[in-house]
């Protein structure tokens, strides 16, 4: 996981990282085995709520074929 300093100050970057970790924790059971996933948060991530972040990551997982559903 990478969150650039362009995303915001330390508080904002840490919030984005916490969101990503928590989403992975909840979605881990849905993800296919043996994958390596790299998440790079962009500046728009700073303005997202937890729910918006979760939906965005789930959409990316679906597009990338990472969900085992």
3D structure, described in words:
This protein has two helices and two strands. It starts with a strand and ends in a 5-residue tail after the last helix. The chain has helices at 10-27, 50-64; strands at residues 2-3, 40-41. It is mainly α. Strands 1-2 form a two-stranded parallel ribbon. It has a single domain (2-64), classed as 2-Layer Sandwich (Ribosomal Protein S5, domain 2). It is elongated.
Question: What does this entry show, briefly?
Answer:
The chain is mainly alpha-helical and 69 residues long.
What does the secondary structure layout of this molecule look like, with pairings?
Blueprint: E1 2-3, H1 10-27, E2 40-41, H2 50-64
Helix pairs in contact: 1-2
Cα distance spanning the termini: 24 Å
Structural class: mainly alpha
What is the CATH topology descriptor? Answer: Ribosomal Protein S5, domain 2
Q: Look at the structure and give the mean pLDDT.
A: 91
Instruction: State the helix count.
Output: 2
Number of DSSP strand runs: 2
CATH architecture: 2-Layer Sandwich
Q: What is the gyration radius calculated from CA atoms?
A: 12 Å
Task: Look at the structure and give the CATH class.
Answer: Alpha Beta
Read across the widest sheet, the strand sequence of neighbours is: 1-2
For the largest beta-sheet, the strand count, sense and barrel status come to: 2 strands, parallel
Order of helices and strands: EHEH
Dominant shape:
elongated
Summarize the amount of helix as a percent range: 40-55%
Q: What is the count of structural domains?
A: 1
Spans of at least 5 consecutive residues whose pLDDT stays below 50 are none
Percent strand: 5-15%
């Amino acid at each position: 996981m990478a969150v650039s300093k362009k995303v915001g100050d330390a508080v904002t970057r840490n919030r984005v990282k916490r969101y990503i970790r928590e989403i992975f924790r909840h979605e881990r059971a849905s993800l296919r085995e043996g994958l390596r996933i790299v998440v790079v948060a962009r500046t728009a991530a700073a303005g997202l709520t937890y729910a918006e972040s979760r939906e965005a990551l789930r959409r990316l997982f679906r597009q990338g074929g990472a969900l085992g559903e």
